[in-house]
Specification:
CATH topology: de novo design (two linked rop proteins)
Number of domains: 1
Number of strands: 0
Oligomer: single chain
Radius of gyration: 15 Å
Helix content: over 70%
Largest sheet: none
Shape: elongated
Distance between the termini: 18 Å
CATH class: Mainly Alpha
Order of helices and strands: HHHH
Length: 118
């Protein structure tokens, strides 16, 4: 039973694609494999957890998956900000991605709050 709108899932797909692109850019600049892996893992985990939430077996499971996705967004934001501060990737490229992470986080927060109230 799908719970989320297809347009939101497409937005998540786009976000994850962009996270992979940043990870690839870091790898091309020979940034530490640890950092590259963290960016890749946290960025794509957002998508995996949102998709898992879409087919959650219960409201509690739905909330749990969205909470994990939110935590992964926070971690991803940390790595993106670090990459920007260090000059590993152009700030003009990272700014819109960090903004998108913030917007998705707000959407997930609203979904979590509304689900908890039910």
């Amino acid at each position: 039973m799908a719970r989320l709108q297809e347009s939101f899932l497409e937005r998540i797909d786009s976000f994850c694609d962009r996270a992979v692109d940043v990870s690839d850019a870091l790898a091309e600049h020979r940034i530490s494999v640890r950092v590259v892996d963290q960016v890749l893992a946290s960025g794509t985990s957002v998508g995996a957890n949102v998709y898992e939430a879409d087919e959650a077996m219960s409201t509690a499971d739905f909330i749990k998956c969205l909470c994990i996705a939110t935590k992964e967004l926070n971690e991803f934001r940390f790595w993106v900000r670090l990459a920007g501060r260090r000059g590993w990737v152009a700030a003009t490229r990272l700014g819109p991605l960090e903004q998108e992470a913030g917007e998705i986080k707000k959407i997930l927060g609203t979904m979590i709050s509304r689900s908890k109230r039910r």
